[in-house]
Design a protein that fits this description.
Number of helices: 15
Order of helices and strands: HHHHHHHHHHHHHHH
Helix content: over 70%
Strand content: under 5%
Distance between the termini: 70 Å
Number of strands: 0
Largest sheet: none
Structural class: mainly alpha
Length: about 450
């Protein structure tokens, strides 16, 4: 008995019918394939025109005609390339030839992406990409403004120390008027010295306070610039006009940041602290007696030591503030829609996918045609050939052939009976036939 898989194999008639159906389907869809490819190429050309128009400079007429010519060239190139692939690639059966055709299709796809797809993405997401650029720039400017403001108001932290030192010297002066320091009441050398130091520190504190007001005013002005920038981002007008207005606001904000960094009084505090200790000149004791003069001289030395300590403390605090790195605000750089799409490609993956799909959709049709034509060729060939039969299939086929030959041979008894049956009509015919010589004798 033949194996089951041989008995279940499709008949040649069924295979031929499937091959014919596929062939007729390919023939009926030729017009659809060309029309689909033409529409996709036209869509790619339109979006390419919209994208390349933003990159060209010159008069409106020059830009229009140059963009149209480029878009038409892209459409024709895309259509011709995919039509060539649809006509030739499905019929190349050799492995080497099929590999070369696949390489050509890959190279052509890369060239299409290079000359069309990124411009399509620019047309689809150019305005959104520029808005993303503006939003990112606003975030950077906000960070720079906050940093500059922090550096500027850092000197305000020195104000409590300055005020405490000033009030301490003022209290000492009041105490000396009552004679608590030298033991002699009055407004002599020590009182004048302490009052002078208190006045200098009080003036420095007032300067720090005034600086804080200027910093607050500048920070408020920078906040208004940032608010205007955010309004430009969310506006619905043309993106090019909004980008120009954004550039104007960015220049104003950069000026605010520069002024903030110049408003800091940390350097002034450091200079004032240095002058307190280095330029201190001890006044001569003006006491009426030698004992009082000695006591005044001793107290002046203590005041000088206290002033040096206070000056060193203020100088160290000012050095820490001055050691903070200066803020270098970024410069706003205007981008075209194509440049913005390339820079922020990761944020617009759906737009890139749509732009590339318009150009490379015919590649799927080419692969479908390759599969269909391969199936047609396979179905048109005999189901079994000697080159791909196994030993078991070959033995089964020989056994079937032998059984068919044996079935066609007649049995010996049946052959004898058949011969006898065939001889009876011949004898009857001989009895009814008279020879020509016998007939002449009868006449």
């Amino acid at each position: 008995m033949p194996p089951e898989n041989v008995a279940a194999a499709p008949t040649p008639t069924t295979r031929a019918s499937a091959s014919a159906l596929l062939s007729r389907g390919v023939t009926r869809l030729e017009v659809t394939l060309k029309l689909t490819t033409a529409i996709l190429a036209l869509a790619a050309g339109v979006y390419t025109y919209l994208g390349v128009r933003e990159l060209l400079n010159g008069s409106p007429a020059t830009v229009f005609f140059a963009a149209v010519i480029y878009a038409v060239a892209v459409s024709v190139g895309i259509y011709a390339f995919w039509v060539f692939m649809m006509h030739f690639m499905p019929h190349v059966t050799g492995r080497a030839g099929r590999g070369l055709m696949a390489g050509c299709m890959l190279l052509g796809s890369l060239m299409i992406v290079a000359m069309s797809s990124w411009l399509n993405a620019s047309a689809l997401a150019g305005a959104a990409a520029i808005q993303q650029h503006l939003a990112t720039t606003v975030q950077d400017y906000t960070r720079d403004l906050d940093s500059a403001n922090s550096n500027a108001i850092a000197a305000q932290g020195l104000l409590p120390d300055i005020q405490l030192a000033s009030s301490r010297f003022a209290r000492l002066a009041d105490a000396e008027r009552a004679g608590s320091l030298t033991g002699t009441a009055g407004s002599g050398t020590v009182v004048q010295l302490l009052t002078q130091m208190s006045g200098q520190l009080d003036s420095l504190g007032q300067e720090v306070q005034a600086s804080g007001k200027r910093v607050s005013a500048l920070y408020e002005l920078g906040g208004k610039n940032l608010a205007r920038m955010r309004e430009l981002i969310s506006d619905r007008g043309p993106i090019s006009a909004r980008s120009d207005a954004f550039a104007t606001e960015s220049l104003a904000l950069m000026g605010v940041i520069a002024n903030l960094q110049q408003t800091s009084v940390a350097a002034a505090v450091k200079r004032a602290a240095a002058s307190l200790s280095s330029s201190f000149i001890a006044p001569a004791a003006g006491g009426r007696s030698a004992d009082l003069a000695d006591r005044q001289t001793a107290m002046v030395g203590k005041v000088e030591s206290s002033i040096a300590t206070q000056a060193a403390s203020l100088s160290d605090a000012a050095d820490k503030i001055l050691a903070t790195p200066r803020v270098e605000p970024i410069r706003f750089q205007s981008l075209s829609s194509a440049e913005a799409v390339l820079r922020y490609a990761g944020d617009f993956i759906p737009s890139w996918a749509g732009a590339i799909s318009i150009d490379l959709m015919p590649a799927v049709l080419v692969l479908i045609l390759c599969v269909v034509h391969a199936t047609i060729r396979r179905e048109a060939q005999p189901s079994v050939s000697a080159s791909n039969m196994t030993v078991g299939e070959l033995v089964a086929a020989l056994q079937i052939a032998h059984e068919v030959v044996q079935a066609r041979k007649p049995m010996p008894d049946q052959a004898r009976v058949g011969a006898e049956r065939m001889g009876e009509p011949a004898a009857m015919m001989e009895e009814n036939v008279t020879s020509l010589s016998a007939a002449r004798q009868i006449k």
